[in-house]
Design brief:
The chain is of the alpha/beta class. Helices cover about 20% and strands about 20% of the residues. It has a single domain, classed as Isochorismatase-like (Rossmann fold, 3-Layer(aba) Sandwich), CATH 3.40.50. Helix 1 links the parallel strand 1 and strand 2. The chain is globular and about 50 Å long. The chain binds pyrazine-2-carboxylic acid (VGL) and zinc ion.
């Protein structure tokens, strides 16, 4: 397949130190997708990288709530929010991309989760499903109609980006072997089923 077409974009989601082994919110084998993500970038004309980018007092951190522990939940004005360990704090080493991730090929690096009061899993919208990151306008103005997703974590930021992509009428492909999951209380199975039901293509890097 030729991904060098102007209507295809590869979105590399949150391949950052804190989501890799040794990081604050480590995803099992998160670092194992770096090489494959670099290879994928060779196939695409348009590469876009996202970066989870939180201020220290971010409301998605358990530490910023009274008597709350990581991986519990809280009701926020936009619905139920999982509380995470402090991660991807703006300017920290944990927020940097994995050192082996090639970033020079990216046309756009989009930061998300910088508003203290609201989390942002999706590359398109904050968790209120309303506040835009700007990615939609960017893709539209470049004539992109098909997106390919890889990165971390499959059942959170990749998943929410894929679902929003469908809502926005993109053809959405998730490259499963170039993702790893957190898998919190069945979230992996739930997200995979939901993606299948909503028309996300789950593919392998070998298919490209
Ligand atoms: C993510 C939890 C919190 C992700 C980001 O990138 O999947 N998950 N912040
Ligand atoms: Zn985050």
């Amino acid at each position: 397949m030729d991904m060098f077409e102007e209507n295809n974009a590869l979105l590399l989601i949150d391949i950052q130190n804190d989501f890799c082994p040794g990081g604050a919110l480590a995803v099992d084998d998160g670092d194992k997708i770096v090489e494959i993500s670099n290879k994928l970038q060779e196939k695409f004309k348009i590469n876009i990288i996202t970066q989870d980018w939180h201020p220290p007092f971010h409301k998605s951190f358990a530490s910023n709530h009274l008597n709350k522990i990581p991986f519990s939940t809280v009701e926020m004005f936009y619905g139920t929010q999982v509380l995470w360990p402090n991660h991807c704090i703006q300017g920290s080493i944990g927020a940097e991309f994995h050192p082996k991730l090639v970033t020079k090929k990216a046309d756009l690096i989009i930061r998300k989760g910088f508003r203290p009061e609201i989390d942002s899993y999706s590359a398109f919208f904050d968790n209120d499903h309303e506040t835009p990151t700007g990615l939609y306008g960017y893709l539209q103005s470049r004539g992109v109609d098909t997106i390919y997703l890889c990165g971390l974590a499959l059942d959170f930021c990749v998943y929410f980006s894929a679902i929003d992509g469908i809502k926005l009428d993109f053809k959405v492909n998730v490259i499963k072997d170039a993702c790893r999951a957190i898998d919190l209380e069945g979230s992996l199975d739930k997200s995979l089923n939901d993606m299948k039901n909503k028309g996300v293509n789950l593919i392998c890097s070998g298919d490209l």
